[in-house]
Design brief:
5-stranded antiparallel sheet, 78 residues
């Protein structure tokens, strides 16, 4: 599934693959907003923002690789 700069502003659904990923999904929810598509650690990636606020009142953000991310699997939200 391809993601490009045109997908900025759309929502995706994430699931955790590892313990770390599952904990982040439990904390911040499955729905994430694509904020930026660029390169992270030398690989194509997207910067995401959580739909749910953290316990501090802010949103969580993180980089997720477009292919073979070690902690997360994702799909475009219909």
């Amino acid at each position: 599934m391809a993601v490009t700069h045109r997908d900025v502003g759309t929502w995706i659904t994430m699931t955790g693959k590892t313990r770390h990923g599952k904990n982040r999904i439990q904390q911040h929810g499955m729905k994430w907003l694509i904020m930026k598509v660029a390169s992270f650690q030398g690989q194509p990636a997207m910067l995401l923002r959580s739909f749910d606020r953290t316990d501090r009142g802010d949103f969580d953000s993180r980089w997720v690789h477009l292919k073979d991310d070690k902690d997360f699997e994702w799909s475009k939200t219909p």
